[in-house]
Task: inverse folding
């Protein structure tokens, strides 16, 4: 099955009429019918039921088209990226990170890097759930990670970026925003959101607040849900500073805790490209040059 046949199937699945689909595709109706039959013969089942009223998806066809639509969209993106790359670049560096704020200075680094390495494309991928695993599968050249998650991983090199501190996230009008440092005792009578993929050291701190300060608490499944709950006046949250997008929507207050979470970027040990080395060094320098930046 080729990309044209994919396009024919998806168009017919949309309009469920051979004549109209053929018109939209600027081909003849017999050509469309022939190509659909070729694909059905290739895959071994009927995608469409034909009738005098037009076409309808079979149950198998419905499932097939649902998956095909996703594949076709990904393929279109891959083709577009390939065309852009071949026209301008000779090399690429793919970096995966869970959230844009994890490497806050990435846009500035890319801009400065491109001035010295104009033929190298930096491709950023944002994947909270599987980005790190994709890096380990060799699908990316660089990954951001909390360093504890990569301690026992072989054949990778750690490039430390910063030590992330713990902050209390509140609404901007919260009375605690008047304090330069929030103490654990300040959480008394508050509702604390916990869980949501928190690293182990943060989970320990959350449990301490629950047991020693006797705060109310409830589980929040992820960071975005937590921020939504903060905005909805449902509670406050302790979070590592690298999650702060610095857009000013919430208050990120310094919290009296010795907990730090070392964070860095990782590369494959066998990848010794000069461009990759320069990119990593530039990332590190940006954080070294901003010692007061809150992470």
Result:
């Amino acid at each position: 099955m080729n990309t044209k046949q994919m396009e024919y199937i998806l168009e017919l699945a949309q309009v469920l009429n051979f004549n109209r689909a053929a018109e939209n595709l600027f081909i003849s109706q017999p050509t469309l019918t022939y190509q659909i039959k070729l694909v059905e013969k290739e895959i071994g089942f009927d995608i469409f039921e034909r009738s005098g009223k037009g076409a309808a998806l079979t149950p198998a066809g419905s499932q097939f088209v649902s998956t095909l639509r996703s594949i076709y969209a990904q393929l279109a993106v891959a083709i577009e990226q390939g065309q852009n790359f071949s026209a301008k670049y000779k090399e690429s560096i793919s970096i995966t990170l869970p959230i844009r704020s994890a490497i806050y200075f990435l846009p500035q680094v890319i801009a400065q890097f491109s001035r010295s390495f104009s033929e190298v494309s930096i491709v950023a991928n944002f994947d909270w759930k599987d980005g790190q695993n994709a890096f380990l599968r060799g699908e990316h050249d660089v990954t951001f990670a909390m360093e504890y998650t990569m301690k026992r991983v072989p054949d990778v090199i750690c490039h430390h970026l910063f030590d992330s501190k713990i902050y209390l996230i509140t609404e901007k009008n919260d009375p605690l925003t008047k304090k330069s440092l929030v103490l654990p005792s300040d959480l008394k009578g508050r509702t604390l959101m916990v869980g949501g993929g928190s690293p182990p050291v943060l989970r320990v701190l959350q449990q301490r607040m629950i047991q020693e300060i006797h705060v109310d608490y409830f589980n929040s499944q992820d960071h975005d849900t937590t921020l939504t709950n903060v905005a909805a006046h449902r509670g406050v949250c302790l979070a590592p500073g690298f999650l702060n997008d610095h857009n000013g929507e919430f208050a990120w207050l310094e919290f009296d805790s010795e907990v730090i979470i070392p964070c860095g970027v990782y590369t494959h040990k066998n990848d010794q490209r000069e461009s990759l080395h320069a990119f990593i060094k530039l990332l590190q320098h940006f954080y070294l040059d901003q010692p007061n930046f809150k992470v």
Q: What stands out?
A: Residues 163-260 form a domain with the D-Maltodextrin-Binding Protein; domain 2 fold (CATH 3.40.190.10). The first strand starts at residue 48 and ends at 51.
